[in-house]
Design a protein that fits this description.
61% of the residues lie in helices and 3% in strands. β2 and β3 form a beta hairpin. α4 runs parallel beside α6, α9 packs antiparallel against α15 and α11 packs antiparallel against α15. It is mostly helical. The chain has one domain. The chain has a 3-stranded antiparallel beta sheet with strand order 1-3-2. It is built from 16 helices and 3 strands. It is globular. Belongs to the glycosyltransferase 87 family.
Length: 415
């Protein structure tokens, strides 16, 4: 497999990685700037229209209360206001360049991780290839910025635990999920320092936004009526039933994405939420039972927690896979990761994700057979990856496995 052929962070290998990153990102930027047309639906309106609209609203000191497309924690505003740093460019062009800068930060962090003793360039190559496969959408959403914060937090845990906690806290106030990178922090003093810093950061930022802005936390109550997003795992039964003429519901733009609305959707929404609760219940159970907390476990647990969160979510937007590419890159930068197969499955899922959106979104919206097939494969890959990742995390840290993994004495049998 491709990741087994990477020999390490030698100078020549790093140079090839830098050249590959620069070439692929130049191609993505040229597509976003209109020099060439990427196949399928245009991914740029979110930035040029929606993000820009939020930008103008946020400049007034108030959050877009009442805007059903706004569903983010308050520090996310920094990402949408950031293009003001480049006033000589249009809003969209400035956003794409800043997203590319965040992409470069993740790449640089993975290169640095590869230079550590036992480090490998596999993680950097995963990031290069995975983002290139996802296409221009990777730089046309702010998820790459949240991923940069999460990767920085995860890599800082070992040497700078309080800094890691602060970064994770900031990440949680950007898009919630980055706090999950702390799932595998060793119990005891390390957990108290890291989680304490994260909690203090969230509390401090929350207080600042509560006092000095308006509507910073409206997002917490404005998503209660969401349906099932048509790209999620929970949407597959409705796709099949709709294709067979057995379901009378419909799909339409709702809360900023295409969702299924109609009979049994509310019930499915509850079931999906219950699956998320069960999955995180398992993660808590794993932490209580785990006995090994080294650096590889820290990285593997972060990847597993976010993967489970995505797979069991009511929404699986294409850009969510950027999160997994960043955390998977951190795992692969460490030679003792147990998540190689799940990460490989996520990379393959990126291929089917881009086939689903933007290339083949029409058949997905209409529940046509090609759209159902692509979603079935993509979501199936994520489900298998989630189960396998949890299995590997448990086998590598639970007491029975640790004992079984200890070297056995080989006795010589003589005739």
């Amino acid at each position: 497999m491709w990741w087994r052929r990477t020999t390490g962070a030698d100078g020549r290998g790093a140079l090839w990685a830098v050249l590959a990153w620069a070439a692929t990102r130049a191609v993505l930027l040229l597509a976003l700037l209109g020099v060439w047309r990427y196949p399928g639906d245009d991914v740029r309106p979110d930035v040029a229209v929606i993000y820009h609209g939020w930008y103008e609203h946020l400049l007034t000191g108030s959050f877009p209360v009442g805007d059903v497309t706004w569903q983010y924690p308050p520090v996310a505003a920094a990402a949408f206001l950031a293009p003001a740093l480049l006033p000589f460019l249009s809003y969209a062009s400035a956003f794409y360049l800043l997203a590319c800068a965040a992409d470069a930060v993740v790449f640089a962090l993975l290169l640095r991780a590869a230079r550590a003793p036992g480090g490998r360039l596999d993680g950097a190559w995963l990031w290069i290839v995975g983002v290139a496969v996802l296409g221009p959408i990777a730089l046309a959403r702010y998820d790459v910025m949240a991923t940069a914060v999460a990767v920085a937090a995860l890599l800082a845990v070992a040497r700078y635990p309080r800094v890691a906690g602060v970064l994770a806290g900031i990440g949680a106030m950007v898009k919630v999920w980055p706090v999950l990178v702390l799932a595998g922090v060793a119990r005891g003093r390390a957990t108290r320092r890291v989680w304490g810093a994260a909690a203090a950061t969230v509390a401090a930022l929350g207080l600042v936004f509560l006092v000095f802005t308006r509507g910073a936390f409206a997002f917490l109550t404005e998503q209660r009526q969401r349906g099932i997003e048509i790209e999620s795992l929970g949407a597959l039964p409705f796709h099949v039933a709709r294709y067979l003429g057995l379901w009378s519901g419909t799909s339409r733009l709702h809360y900023g994405s295409f969702e299924f609305l109609g009979p049994y959707v509310h019930t499915m929404s509850k079931l999906v939420l219950a699956s998320t609760v069960l999955a995180f219940g398992w993660l808590v159970w794993w932490r209580l039972k785990a006995r090994a907390f080294d650096q590889a476990v820290l990285y593997d647990a972060a990847f597993t927690a976010v993967l489970v969160f995505i797979t069991t979510s009511r929404v699986i937007s294409p850009q969510y896979l950027i999160w997994l590419l960043g955390l998977g890159g951190v795992c692969l930068a460490h030679r003792r990761t147990a998540q190689r197969l799940p990460i490989g499955l996520v990379l393959v899922a990126c291929v089917f994700t881009v086939l689903e959106f933007p290339i083949g979104f029409g058949p997905v919206v209409r529940s046509n057979l090609p759209g159902i097939a692509v979603l079935l494969v993509r979501n199936g890959l994520l489900l298998v990856a989630s189960v396998w990742a949890c299995r590997q995390l448990w086998r590598g840290t639970a007491p029975p496995r640790i004992q079984a993994a200890q070297p056995r004495r080989v006795e010589r049998v003589t005739a």
